[in-house]
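Field: COMPLEX_INPUT
Field: COMPONENT_COUNT = two
Field: RESIDUE_TOTAL = 327
Field: MODE = joint
Values follow.
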Amino acid sequence: MEQLNIKALEKRAFRSFFRDGIYDVFLGGILLSFGLPLILSEFGWIHYETMAIPLIISIIVNVSALVFFVFGKKYITAPRLGIIRFGKTRKRKMMHVRLLLAISVLIGLATFFLTLFKILPVGAETGIPAASMIFGIQVLIVFSLAAYFMDFTRLYLYAFLFAVSMPVTFWLKKNAAFTYPSLYVSCLTAGPMLVIGLILFVRFLRQYPNKERVAG
Amino acid sequence: MSKQRKSETQDLGQLLDIDKIIHEPARLMILAYLSAVESADFIFLLNQTGLTQGNLSFHLSKLEEADYVAIEKKFIGKRPHTMLSIKDKGNQALKEYLKTMKGLIDSLVDN
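Field: COMPLEX_OUTPUT
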């Protein structure tokens, strides 16, 4: 019972760092980085003949999300919530998360190159390329496990949203009469992450004034 | 003195042995949080415990005097920063306190 309460306190302390909404905005930004070039191409503003422009747009959104995450955690969250060094069990769990993400990146790269060399089937009948299915399944597994190790409940929902985003976009493109399928899918997947994140972020700023000057 | 009365007095006598440094709710809360992590700073404890700055400083110095917590003061840039961690002695005292309290409560409920 004593052990259980200490564990609960540790869990509560760790989870308090998800209150700022920065993780949510970051993940929403990453998902948007996939969708935004597709949306812009559907509007006819950019073209996929050369991959350079979509890739640059994707990188800009990715880097912006990363900058917001790193600087937000350092200059907004830490002065307000404080700094904690967690114990061995939490460090081990976070190591599992890093390992999972590394595996996910490797699978993503392998899928990308297999698609590039036309080894994976493009899914002519359904309109869903095998690469997008692999992406969806691996993201669902990896993010769900990360959610479990991080005690980050919202990440289960985000895992699902990440997983369905690509296959659904491709399916809609082939089978539905929507003009802007990528826009609808992005609004329904990256949208909730960004909205939840921004609401939490504003609430966090109001709830926790900057205590940086407090020295103790 | 009857046998039962003597036994009750012995049980309640444990109350006098309770560690009074830890028995104070604010200090118990501080120690519990610090035992859950490797170390934490002053702002984290301020948020988690809901104590005022003065109150937290006061209780931390009491815990430091008892050699239950380590307080490390340093500067990050030009700003002072205080990191806190529970010492082995503090951890041991907390475990002992919880065990004693649990035993006491159990014996009172049983009676």
